[in-house]
Amino acid sequence: MIIDTHTHFYDISRPAHYWPPRNSDLYRTCLPEHYKALAQPFGVIGTVVVEASPQMVDNEWILSLAEKDTFIKGFVGNIGLGSAAFAGDLARLAANPLFVGVRANWWDSGQLLAPEVVDDLKDLADRNLELDILCGVPALLGLPELQHKVPGLRVVINHVAGVRIDGRPPDRVWVNAIRPLADCPGVFCKVSGLVEAHHGAVSSRLEDYVPTLDFLWNVFGEDRVIYGSNWPVCERAAPYATVQGIVTGYLKRKGEPAARKFFYENSQKAYRWLERHS
Questions:
Q1: Were both Cys, which of 108, 146, 217, 234 would link to 230 (CB 3.0–4.6 Å)?
Q2: What is the value of pTM for the model shown?
Q3: CB neighbours of 156 closer than 8 A, spacing ≥ 6?
C-alpha cells in the first residue's frame, strides 16, 4: 500500500485558477482520475495533495474536490505565514478535517524564524497541523532553532531540500546542513523531486540516486522518510513509472517493514491524514 504525499491537482477551465501559468508545459488539466490511472497499478491507494497556489479560492477548490473523492486523504494548503490574513485563513481551512497542514517556500532562515512566522507556526502546532517546507541550505540551517521555538511542530522537508543529484556523493554544504536534523525528531524528509533534482540527462538507474538516498536514510532513519512523487511536475523530467521504479527499487533493499513505513506509516505520523474508504 502506497500513500503519495505530494501531488498537485488543478483544472485550467476554472477561470480563477492561479497555477500553472499559461506559458508552462504543465498547462493542462490534472485531476485525481488522471493520476489514479497512472498510480493505482503501482499500488498507490491514496494521496496528500499539496497546493501550489496562494489563492484561497484554489485552496478551497481542492478541499471541495477532496470531499467528493476518498482517494484524497489530506490536503496541505498554501496560505501566507506571517501575513495579517493567516490566522483567519487558517481557521477557515482547518474547519475541514481533510486539511492537514500548510506549505511554505522559504530560502533563508530569516524568513523561517521571523517572529510573526513563529507565532503562526505555534498556531499550526496547537491545531496539530504540520508544515511542508520547500527550501534550500539557508533555511535548513534554521530548522533546529525552529524546533526549539515550536517544539510540537511537525515539519516535512520537500523535494530532498533541493540537492543536486548526479550519481556522486551529495554536495558537502548540503550534507552539513542536513546532518544536524538527525537530532530534530519532528522533522521528516519527503523523498520527492528526485528526477527533477538530477543534473544533466535524467537517469532511470537506481545507482545514480543511491548516494543521496543512503545519506538521507542514515540521517533521518526509517521512521522519518516519506514518499512523494510530485506528480505531474515530475513528468517534466521523467515518466511517472521511472519515479516509482527508483523508489521501489531502493526500498526493496531495505526490506518489507521499512518499505511499509516509507510508503505508508510515516506519512500517517507526519500528516495525520484521514483513513477514508469509498
A1: 234
A2: 0.95
A3: 5, 101, 130, 131, 132, 133, 187, 188, 189, 190, 226, 270, 271
- The order of strands in the sheet holding 44-50 is 2-7, 44-50, 72-77, 99-105, 130-134, 154-157, 187-191, 225-227
pLDDT in tens, 2-56: 999 999 999 999 987 787 878 788 889 999 999 999 999 999 999 999 999 999 9
Containing structural domain, residue 169: 2-271
- The torsion defined by the Cα of 13, 19, 20 and 21, in degrees rounded to 10, comes to 90
> Which tens digits make up the pLDDT trace of 93-131?
999 999 999 999 876 667 889 999 999 999 999 999 999
Amino acid at position 138, single letter: P
Grid cell 519532528 is found at: 186
